[in-house]
Amino acid sequence: MSKRSGISFTRRAPDNITEELIAVLSSKASFEFKPLFEIILLNLRERNAASGGEEMLRLRAYEKLQGLVSQGAVNRTVTGVTKKYKGVGARMVVLGTWLVFRSIQRIHHFEHRIKELSEKYRALAEFIE
């Protein structure tokens, strides 16, 4: 009989790429993928959140974009060989609100965790606060 490990799958919060996609696509403009990726890459570099190499980020951004298209949050318009992406206003507002909510939840979680650790390890508490 094998013992199950304590590790289980949990749904992750949206990552930096998804946040940037939503921020950029919330505008009224439509984008081809290449200019959209350039904007996202620039924003991620400004936040010091671009890691893993540019090609890997490009693949991840395209995958996230296709996920948003399949959810109906982004419209894809194909004209010949050109594909343009544009955010759906109401869905972008919902996704943006959800991102803010998740961020607030994470902040509360970490504040609670810091409080627990401060109480448990009094010697470290003075450095944390």
Task: Give a quick rundown of the structure.
This protein has 129 residues and is mainly α.
Explained architecture:
- Strand 1 and strand 2 form a beta hairpin.
- This protein has one domain (16-128): Orthogonal Bundle (Arc Repressor Mutant, subunit A), CATH 1.10.10.10.
- Strands 1-2 form a two-stranded antiparallel ribbon.
- Helix 1 (16-25) crosses helix 2 and helix 2 (33-46) packs across helix 3 (54-71).
- It is built from 5 helices and 2 strands.
- It is mainly α and 129 residues long.
H/I helix tally: 5
**Tally of distinct domains:** 1
The averaged pLDDT comes out at 85
User: SSE order, as H and E?
Assistant: HHHEEHH
The name of the CATH topology is Arc Repressor Mutant, subunit A
What's the helical proportion of residues?
Answer: 55-70%
Give the low-pLDDT segments: 6-10
* CATH superfamily placement: Winged helix-like DNA-binding domain superfamily/Winged helix DNA-binding domain
Specify the structural class: mainly alpha
What is the strand content? 5-15%
User: In one word, what is the shape?
Assistant: elongated
Major sheet characteristics: 2 strands, antiparallel
Q: Rg to the nearest angstrom?
A: 19 Å
Question: In angstroms, what separates the terminal alpha carbons?
Answer: 47 Å
Compute the number of strand runs.
Answer: 2
The second-level CATH architecture is Orthogonal Bundle
In spatial order, strands of the major sheet run 1-2
The CATH class is Mainly Alpha
